[in-house]
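Subject: Ribonuclease P protein component structure
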Amino acid sequence: MKFTFQKREKLKSKKIIEKLFEEGKSISHYPIKLIYLKVQPLPEDVKIRAGVAVPKKNFKSAVKRNKIKRLLRESYRLNKQVAFNNIEGNFAFLFLYLGKELPQYAEVEKSLIVLLQKFSKQIAHEKFDE
């Protein structure tokens, strides 16, 4: 498994992002919330398209918002195999940072790993229920 987060893996489609907020399911582990949605097979053989967001309401400074987004992307890049290895189908992810203060990388990574594990369990449970 390569630890990369390529351009084709990034969530950029406005249609999919709108659909995520309307129909997506969510999992939270403070200070991060994961909104996910099963989507039609994506072009370019990508299992998961992921995006990150930090609300302007909580962080007025663009510099701070961008730092948090970099932390989120980096921890996702290094730990995405937790979700990749346990899913079937294609998903769109959106990671929202809910905290009010600037986090340390270790806090973000720990929370993101827990979220991805919860996601894997929930998907396995949903598949089992079908």
